[in-house]
Amino acid sequence: MKNSHRFFSNTECKYFPCHKTSRPERFNCLFCYCPLYFFDECGGNYRMLESGVKDCTPCMIPHTYEGYDHIVGRLKERFAAMAAERKGK
User: Fold this and answer.
1) CA 26/CA 16 separation, integer angstroms
2) What CA dihedral angle connects 42, 43, 49 and 54, to 10 degrees?
3) Is 24 exposed, middle or buried (0-12, 13-18, 19+ CB in 10 A)?
4) Which residue of 3, 7, 50, 61 lies most exposed, with the fewest beta carbons within 10 A?
């Protein structure tokens, strides 16, 4: 598969798919746990519960083909900002 590092589907997982989808064949499990969860603003479709917990149930970004670019792009931005902050100290 071309660009196979961007997509992985674990249909044997007992939670597959962990979000409702009409296209399980396109469900990406690569970011089973979203690396952007702890970002204040991740760019995803989430809601904050009264308890302060981020509910990402409606977000499908990590589970799409395009989600790889979104997540890696956000991580690169964050790492660049952290590096710039370290240089400034």
Assistant:
1) 12
2) -30
3) exposed
4) 50
Whether 18 and 33 have beta carbons less than 8 Å apart is answered as no
> Each residue of 3-21: pLDDT tens digit?
788 999 999 999 999 988 9
Structure tokens given for 8: 């992985």
Domain containing 11 equals 4-88
Q: Cα(79)–Cα(89) distance, rounded to whole angstroms?
A: 16
Enter the tokens of residue 73.
């792009």
Total domains present in the chain: 1
Write out the two tokens for 88. Answer: 């400034």
